[in-house]
Design goal:
With about 400 residues, the chain is α/β, with parallel strands linked by helices. The chain contains 13 helices and 13 strands. α1 (about 5-25) packs antiparallel against α5 (about 130-135), α2 crosses α10 and α11 packs parallel to α13 (about 370-390). This is Aminotransferase.
């Protein structure tokens, strides 16, 4: 076989996603299709985003579009924002600019883990396993609570072995929309401290926080960095700006990491990013960071869409996890077959994401980034298909 083993392993790990993504090509050119699959925009970009990019488009020097690593003004703006938002003393040197959260996650894994190391990931969860397989690391799934989808600390503890190097926490969580409380995160921190002492090897925590600023009903947010010093934080602007095609994110070192280790990690960031293929955001996106720190999608409108869909689908008999954050709605597929449910909806021009993408064949996800009009068009099909599958 000419294909590398790591490429084959990554392909196998992400196959449900690629298969579904390729199937969406059937939508191309179709009129009236309601796409509720991914967190893509369906309205014109936020004016604040457009203004921020327009303001930095005109070159201010010959090196305006030269090679860039992490730019100091972006690092300074982010560190200040994190200090205000999380109440932790982040410094600009703790911030490394990346191409979205994916770039930050890939950087984090390679920063502290080696070939063959195990990384505990949430299930259901997003694309961590393929990224780990491509790096010759081993994903170990730890299920969330099967009823509430809260963080199951006991499941994480059972998943940890002497080979564990990183545990991933995603809050607010994709696809479930759950936000994990400080008490639960403190329980996890105690488990990781015990495991680190028992194994004689530090277990790191990667806090995947791209939806941190998208929360409902006044629900607060605690970063694991506040309760566990050995934490790396990744973030993406693509969610709060609803512009996932503009790759902008960062990896932040917890300011509680001991100084000697923190200095070592800071020094390793630049050469590692260079070795990984110059994984920095484009110059314009970095120039725009100070302005983008205060730009956000309309959370009030997003709340109205959430409430409308939750109410209508609950009335129709759907079992849903009411999202506390993110812009997704997670529910049990009527009849228990997510693929069959998604196929029946697709025949009516409504596309949802089956839970097979998340290793949960009995669930589905809807993206609330669709317009209100799209959601209203989708509701009759959702009600009809749901009722039919339950009767069947």
């Amino acid at each position: 076989m000419e294909l590398s083993e790591r490429a084959h392993a990554a392909d196998q790990a992400i196959e449900p996603v690629t298969s579904f993504f390729l199937s969406l090509r059937a939508m191309d050119g179709q009129d009236g299709v309601v796409d509720l699959t991914f967190g893509d925009p369906h309205e014109m970009p936020l004016p604040g985003l457009v203004t921020a990019l327009r303001d930095v488009l005109e070159p201010r020097g010959t090196d305006w579009f030269a090679y860039k690593s992490s730019l100091a003004p972006a690092q300074e703006a982010i560190a200040a924002g994190l200090r205000d938002e999380l109440g932790l003393p982040f410094e600009p040197a703790d911030i490394t600019m990346t191409q979205g959260a994916f770039g930050a996650i890939a950087l984090a894994f390679r920063l502290v883990a080696d070939v063959g190391d195990e990384v505990v990931i949430p299930a259901p969860g997003w694309f961590y396993a393929p990224m780990l397989r491509a790096a010759d690391m081993v994903p170990i799934k730890a299920s969330l609570d099967p009823e509430t989808f809260d963080l199951d600390v006991d499941a994480v503890a059972r998943a940890i072995t002497p080979r564990t190097r990183v545990v991933v926490v995603n809050s607010p969580a994709n696809p479930t929309g759950r936000v994990y409380g400080r008490d639960r995160l403190a329980e996890l921190a105690a488990v990781l401290e015990d495991a680190s002492a028992r194994n004689g090897r530090r277990v790191w925590l990667l806090s995947d926080e791209p939806y941190r600023r998208i929360r409902f009903d006044g629900i607060g947010f605690t970063s694991p960095a506040a309760v566990y010093p050995w934490t790396l934080v990744d973030y993406s602007y693509g969610k709060v700006l609803l512009a996932p095609g503009q790759r902008l994110g960062y990896l932040a070192l917890s300011p509680s990491v001991p100084d000697t280790v923190r200095d070592e990690l800071r020094a390793a960031m630049l050469p590692l990013q260079l070795a990984l293929g110059w994984g920095f955001p484009d110059a314009l996106m970095q120039y725009a960071v100070p302005a983008l720190e205060t730009v956000s999608i309309d959370l009030d409108e997003l709340t109205r869409r959430r409430d409308r869909m939750v109410g209508a689908l609950a009335d129709a008999g759907y079992a849903l996890t009411v999202p506390e954050g993110t812009f997704y709605l997670w529910g049990a597929a009527p009849g228990g077959d997510a693929v069959g449910f998604a196929a029946a909806l697709a025949e009516r021009g409504v596309y949802v994401l089956p839970g097979t993408v998340f290793d949960r064949a009995g669930h589905f996800r809807i993206s609330l980034t669709a317009t209100s009009a799209m959601l209203e068009r989708a509701l009759p099909a959702l009600v009809e298909v749901g009722a039919g599958l339950v009767r069947g």
